[in-house]
Amino acid sequence: MKFISKSEKETFEFAKDFAGKLDKGTIIFLDGEMGSGKTAFAKGLLSGLGYKGEVTSPTFALCHIYNLGIPILHYDLYRIQDCDDLYSTGFFEDCGKDNITIVEWSGIAKEYFPEAIQIKFEYGSTPEERIITIE
Asked: What is the CATH classification number for the domain harbouring 122?
């Protein structure tokens, strides 16, 4: 599935609608260049799941947890260098359980979770346009 977003607001709304398709145990990988819409999409997902507060990228915290009846884990693996680093975060214990896991910069984790929903973000033909591909 491919969606062309004309703005950050459209990306947010698309993700908000997409959140209705998520079940416990879902893992979502968000990948694309810096500034391509990953965090805007994560914000929309969390809004669609009922979260009303502020959502920021967990780049330095590594993971933010939002409790919405079930835990929503929002990871950013940008700074994770290898599998040992990934193991030390508790990532493997968290994924696929009774939660929903959103992962920005998922490259290093992809081989371990082939069942994850893969979402790719690319720049479009205008500065605001993004091409969002869901596999």
From this structure: 3.40.50.300
Per-residue pLDDT of the chain (135 residues; tens, 9 = 90+): 999 999 999 999 999 999 999 999 999 999 999 999 999 999 999 999 999 999 998 988 899 999 998 999 999 999 898 888 888 888 888 887 789 999 999 999 998 999 999 999 999 999 999 999 999
Of the candidates 119, 106, 100, which has an alpha carbon nearest to the alpha carbon of residue 40? 119
**Residue in 18, 13, 16, 33 with CA at minimum distance from that of residue 122:** 33
Domain count, the chain: 1
Full domain range(s) for residue 70: 2-134
Residue type, 67: N
